[in-house]
Amino acid sequence: MRKHLPSLNQLRAFEATARNLSFSKAADELHVTHAAVSHQVKALEDFLQTRLFDRLTRSIKLTEEAQRYYLDAKKALDIIEVSTAVFFEKRATGELKISVAPSFATRWLLPRLEDFHERYPEIRVELQPSMEVTDFQNTDLDLAIRHGKGRWAGLKSEKLFDEYLVPVAAPALAASLEAADIPQQTLLSASPRKQEWPHWVEAVIGEPASELRLILYPTQALALDAAVAGGGVALADRHLIENDIAAGRLIALNDEPLANDQAFYVSYRKGPVVEAKIGLFCEWLRMRLD
After folding, report:
1. How far, CA to CA in Å, does 170 sit from each of 139, 233, 258?
2. Closest by CA position to 182, among listed 235, 256, 131
3. For residues 72-105, b (16+ Cβ closer than 10 Å) or e, as one string?
4. Which CA distances in Å does 208 have to 42, 204, 236?
5. What span, in angstroms and rounded, lies between the C-alpha atoms of 174 and 125?
6. Rounded to whole angstroms, what are the CA distances from 53 to 39, 47, 115, 179, 190?
7. Contact of 81 with 73, CB cutoff 8 Å
8. Residue 186, CB-side half-sphere exposure with 13 Å CA sphere
9. Which residues have C-beta within 8 Å of that of residue 262, sequence separation ≥ 6?
10. What is 72-127 written as a DSSP string?
11. Can you count the helices (H) and strands (E) in the chain?
12. Phi, psi for 164 (deg, rounded to 5)
């Protein structure tokens, strides 16, 4: 009999509370109530006959003894999780919920998703197009594909590709344009990316960008749709427009793409183990982008 071994529920509640320094955040993570977490931590304190947290006015902090215990408890739980994951790593089944930037979804992912379905028929992919920063704590999402700098708290982010912007237009409009004519055209962009056109004009054309005629759309996907319809010139990375160019819907107006300071990333919860279905999807993404 292991008389000095606390219950697993007590350890999980303690580890989550210590890592977040919050009973409320630990409760959200474990999908239980604040009272349940407090009860498990109090039971562990009674078992150890030691105070683990100093309760301050609006926060908590680990005692010196608890800090050492937390590191050991976290290591032990990680070992158990990694060892248990071996039993599931071959069982890549079930639903994979992905929050994805609309431009990446419509322009790159959807045309290729059938290939993933054919390779892994036991995994059902559900896409949720969104521009919002993903809240993994309060949703059942597995993955997010986002445009940004890859620094999202609590998440592991893998870069899919750096972004190099190129101006594109429908064939009828592109036929009459030189690169130097672009600043005088109707320029299409997503609202969150409205600084990209001024940056491109100043960096590539070498002109001031104070009086550009911009039309802003909620998403880059809509801006590209407007470009296909002949409504103006849009900026995009070649990964997102390669199908449009191949089909003749869009034509690139410049052969020297401008490096952007942001990129596309795939993100998921940090942890010692990556679920098999998440690992397979990330591996598939990397393969298709090579």
Report:
1. 39, 8, 20
2. 235
3. ebbeebeeeeeeeeeeeeeebeeebbbbbbbbbb
4. 64, 11, 21
5. 37
6. 13, 14, 51, 64, 47
7. no
8. 14
9. 147, 148, 149, 163
10. HHHHHHHHHHHHHHTTTTT---EEEEEEE-HHHIIIIIGGGHHHHHHH-TTEEEEE
11. 11, 11
12. -125, 115
* Cα→Cα distances 37→7, 23, 63, Å: 13, 7, 18
Can you name the residues that pair with 53 across neighbouring β-strands? 62
Task: List the pLDDT tens digit at each of the 290 positions of the chain.
Answer: 577 788 989 999 999 999 989 998 888 778 788 899 999 999 999 999 999 999 888 889 999 999 999 999 988 888 887 677 666 555 567 889 999 999 999 999 999 999 999 988 889 999 998 877 777 777 888 899 998 888 887 788 899 999 999 999 999 999 988 888 999 999 999 998 999 999 999 998 888 888 899 999 999 999 999 999 999 999 999 999 999 999 999 999 987 789 988 899 999 887 765 678 888 898 899 888 87
Cβ of 20: how many Cβ atoms within 10 Å? Answer: 17
Rounded to whole angstroms, the Cα distance separating 227 from 220 reads 10
What's the pTM? 0.67
Cα-trace Rg, the chain: 25
Domains of the chain by start residue, with CATH: 8-85 (1.10.10.10), 94-161+263-289 (3.40.190.10), 163-259 (3.40.190.10)
Integer Cα distance of 147 and 260 in angstroms: 11
Please list the helix, strand and coil fractions of the chain in percent, rounded to the nearest 5, in that order.
Answer: 45, 25, 30
- Specify the 3-state DSSP secondary structure of 230: coil
